[in-house]
Write a structure and sequence with these properties.
single chain; alpha/beta; Rossmann fold; seven-stranded mixed beta sheet; 9 helices; binds adenosine-5'-triphosphate; binds magnesium ion
Length: 219
Amino acid sequence: MRLGLLGGTFNPIHYGHLRAAEEVRERRALDRVLFVPAALPPHRDEPEIAPRHRLEMTRLAVDTNPFFEASSTEIAMPGPSYSVRTVRALLEERQGADEFFFITGTDAFREITVWHQWEVLLTLCHFVVVTRPGAPFAALAGLPLLQRVPPETLGALDKGEQHSARCPLDGGRVLFLEAIPPFPLSSTAIRERIRAGLSIKYYLPEPVESYIIAQGLYR
Ligand code: ATP
Ligand code: MG
């Protein structure tokens, strides 16, 4: 069992998240991808939308993909959502999973060295870093973790000359860099559009849009 994990606030979930997860699932032959909404993101302000709404939107968004699943693991855990705790909890919960692939966008990964026990986290799972518009791989140059990745590789990924790079880490884990087709979407932009009374159609799955409207979220 090869299990992917995409964490986030999913406030709200959108096609950028879904497409990134689907790309990684196919490229890395994952059996399943768990979408794990965070309860209390440690490095950002608490989102204004209750965890149960973010979990429900995530459920609605992944419903039609048999490989995807919404996980309440972080939301159900008391205390801050540290990824290292989440992965440990999931390893317990999914005894059958032999390999974990932690998926993040370049913007999230750039901050990894401030994550709680990040060095331990890197011994528990592989990492898959996907490109995100506005956050090129080149911006990761200098990260201690990428010491063994030549800067030319980062440039080649950004230019589309190379689609992925495999970087062995200490302890047998692997860091995969995946240049995926760009989806210039963010939850911030969606929240701003709703506040401005603009359409969010085709930014996220229709059931999520309907839920946002029915619940009057982000107004
Ligand atoms: P916000 O604007 O509120 O920060 P967001 O769109 O960045 O929301 P998050 O929930 O913060 O979404 O992101 C969860 C994970 O998904 C992060 O690892 C992030 O890098 C990744 N991600 C989000 N949007 C995209 C996208 N358009 N393309 C690739 N990865 C993305
Ligand atoms: Mg974000």
